[in-house]
Amino acid sequence: MPTTNLRKLRTNLNRRKLINSGFAFLGATIIAIAIIILLGLTLKMAFQGAERITPEFFTSFPSRRASRAGILSAWVGTCLVMLVTAMAAIPLGVASGIYLEEYAKKNWLADLIEINVTNLAGVPSIIYGLLALGLFVYELRLGQSILSAGLTLALLILPVVIVTTRESIRAIPNSLREASYALGASKWQTIWDHILPYSFGSILTGVIIGLSRAIGETAPIITIGALTFIAFLPKSPFKSEFPFLSFEWLQAPFTVMPIQMFNWVSRPQAAFEINAAAAGTVLIGMTLGINAIAIFLRYQLRKDIKW
């Protein structure tokens, strides 16, 4: 090869390496700036509300007096709504992803469904609130209840769970399926015993993202009629008589943490802003707690799998 061509080749390689290094540096800088800003805002909120994060803050109902106001009804309502959301969205989303990826025929109808599911992941949350208001509250007559709120948020995160499940299953190599079929396993046995254990860690990532989004949503919850001030708790899901479970709490009125925060920041007194900062810190803690549980489960599942 002539010397001139070698010089051109080296020049092109050096230029590409320089561009790659510059792009990597730019990306790392942007990420660092975003993390610093987010961490700064979070720490500022935590320091502002730290004085109100006491046991009484968790065990007191909202009050017109900022010093006596608490988040008991808000955090209980958030936990119950998220419980309904998880119980509705995770099984349905995972089952839908398995069907679309493993059982559905690869034709124009499957492509149409895939496009629509992907597009639904970007629909504004207020649209889901309007849909839930017409379907769950008026048509199915579920009322302005915890059940309606949980199903609304389940619809909101369902596309994320479906897309993540499909991508996780698609990442499993076909050689694993072929080895299972060669040993005489059926399609469902292959999915249940091999595909899901290897892909469930990635599926949990989608569940984490969905639940983290749902726990902070306000617009769809307000649309279906969540209360901004509530001084009572739903009935307990447990009872002393057989069958020891009660589902009356599903029909109870509710409020959630984001709505409680919105109620406090809309008040003119500065003391309520401190309460809102404390509630925001607790909400972030709840989100991180959900993420920590999911990450722990994902780690345990991956540790038990033999590659």
Task: Walk me through the structure.
With 307 residues, the protein is mostly helical. The chain folds into two domains: 48 residues; 250 residues, MetI-like fold, CATH 1.10.3720. Helices cover 73% and strands 0% of the residues. The protein has eleven helices and no strands. The longest helix is centred in the first third of the chain and has 47 residues. The protein is globular and about 85 Å long. It starts with a helix and ends with a helix.
The average pLDDT value, as a whole number, equals 84
In CATH terms, the superfamily of the largest domain is: MetI-like
First CA to last CA: what distance? 45 Å
Flag low-confidence runs. Answer: none
Shape field: globular
Membrane topology: Multi-pass membrane protein
Keywords: Cell membrane, Membrane, Transmembrane, Transmembrane helix, Transport
GO molecular function: phosphate transmembrane transporter activity
Family: Belongs to the binding-protein-dependent transport system permease family. CysTW subfamily.
